UniProtKB/TrEMBL annotation:
One of its GO terms (biological process) is cell redox homeostasis. The record marks 35-36 as: Contributes to redox potential value. This is Thioredoxin. GO terms for molecular function: protein-disulfide reductase activity. Disulfide bonds join 34-37. The active site is at 34 (nucleophile), 37 (nucleophile). The keyword Phosphoprotein does not apply. SUPFAM superfamilies: Thioredoxin-like (SSF52833). It comes from the Bacteria. InterPro entries: Thioredoxin, Thioredoxin-like_sf, Thioredoxin_CS, Thioredoxin_domain. Belongs to the thioredoxin family.
Amino acid sequence: MNNSGTVTLNEGNFEEEVTRSSKPVLVDFWAEWCGPCKLIAPLLDEIAKEKGDAVKVAKVDVDQNQSLSARYNIRAIPTLLFFKDGQLRDQVTGMTSKKDLLGRIEALA
């Protein structure tokens, strides 16, 4: 699921890509078997392409990264976490609109 401007995250690169990032990071916790995850993925890909200079869009496969899912208390997917300066600032669980996501990203600026 990494064919746009998104970064694939795992336990090994999470700290570097998210908590040490110089720009805000939107992290999508998803799974291959999750229908809503597949519906929101194109929106995230568009945001990554359109706003890539202002925000990093990253994805965590919950099946392959269970410790990250537990660390951030992910109970339902898709869950989108918004980080700025290494701190969790916002969260959305389930489907939402591109407009809502862009508004949340802009609020981080």
